[in-house]
Amino acid sequence: MASPDASPAVAIGDDPASSRSGRFAGPDATADVAVVVVTYESANDLEALIASLRVEAAGQRLRVVVADNGSSDGTLAVARSHSDIVAIETGGNLGYAGGINAAMRAVGDAGTILILNPDLVVVPGAIAALRERLRHSDVGVVVPRILDADGSPFTSLRREPSLLRAVGDAAFGSRFASRPGAFAEVVHDASAYEHPHPADWATGAALLIDARVARAVGPWDERFFLYSEETDFLRRVRDLGRTVWFEPGAVVRHAQGGSGASVDLERLMAVNRIRYMRKHHGPITAAAYRGAVVMHEAARAWMPAHRAALRTVLSERTWADLPRASRHDETGSAA
Questions:
Q1: CA 225 to CA 99: how far, in whole Å?
Q2: How far apart are CA 243 and CA 228, in angstroms?
Q3: Which of 85, 202, 209, 302 could bond to 113 as cystine, CB 3.0-4.6 Å?
Q4: How far apart (Å, rounded) are the C-alpha atoms in residues 111 and 7?
Q5: Can you tell me the distance from the alpha carbon of 334 to that of 304, in angstroms, rounded to the nearest whole number?
Q6: How far apart are the first and last CA of the chain?
Q7: C-alpha angle with apex 148: 142 to 149, nearest 5 degrees?
Q8: How far is CA 161 from CA 25, 125, 268, in A?
Q9: What is the structure's pLDDT at 119?
Q10: In a 10 Å sphere around its CB, with 0-12 CB exposed, 13-18 middle and 19+ buried, how is residue 40 labelled?
Q11: Which range among 2-6, 8-12, 30-34, 104-108 shows the weakest confidence by mean pLDDT?
């Protein structure tokens, strides 16, 4: 077996002729990889992702499962226009965690689960490189290098949240990128994105998960709706004694420039950081961490989104108004 510190070769050529056609495996077939894509108003992005996955299907058996969270822009029609894609309706807007859980019920027999955001495209060879990294004995999840639409690296790697890191990020943000890791949750050091290594966690845009690990960890925590759900899931992977690896030899990129988060999503991001600490730490640590989040938002309160987040973090009774899962009743109305 190759050293885990070396980027793997990407050729995996032991698949049948049907996979070389670029078609996806059907729901009853055995797949090497079940690709899970949670969509919401993603019609403009989905075709580019599907096209890139068809290139990847030339050397391995991929099943693609699209779980749509109640889109109104024709996203589901785009997915269903491909007869070899498993397209399901989640029954509402269940958020990212809820959408993943809905899709997981349709992945079938697959050795690995690849979770992808719909606004990504997969660079040829990426899935094979992720699979090769996953072959190392203690690796449970592998994450790729992510590029923005302009080709610049996206800072996707993170360290486990802590009080010191929250204070450091509140005070310095992306400045002093070389400061000790004890004072930074986001990994800003460019050299960290140039070689494979273990990571605490990474943004949930692209994750390859050993299917056995996914079953052992269990469902994604739907209480988070959006943001911190991947932090929680990957912590539970590590709690099982499995590692999360960053593999720069696997590359995905955003198909187009992002539009940024809404004010409500900025509020939710801040609150979910606190919810995460309350789940995994005692009340004293969680309260201190909340103070650090207040400091973070107060230092940026000249920006409207951070000013709104500050008000929300300070007033817990407003948390009930944050975005959360909603299901449609039989008439199609939100319930």
A1: 9
A2: 18
A3: 209
A4: 21
A5: 29
A6: 53
A7: 130
A8: 39, 32, 17
A9: 95
A10: buried
A11: 8-12
8 A C-beta contact, residue 31 and residue 15? no
Q: In 10 A of CB 16, how many CB atoms?
A: 9
The SS3 assignment for 39 reads: strand
Spatial separation of the C-alpha atoms in residues 301 and 313, rounded to whole Å: 12
Show me where the domains of the chain are located.
Answer: 17-254, 263-320
Fold of 17-254: Spore Coat Polysaccharide Biosynthesis Protein SpsA; Chain A (3.90.550)
| Three-state DSSP state, 17 | helix
Comparing CA positions, the residue from 326, 332, 335 lying closest to residue 93 is 326
**253: buried, middle or exposed (CB in 10 Å: 19+, 13-18, 0-12)?**
buried
Q: Report the C-alpha gap between 248 and 273 in whole angstroms.
A: 27
Q: Tell me what pLDDT residue 15 has.
A: 38
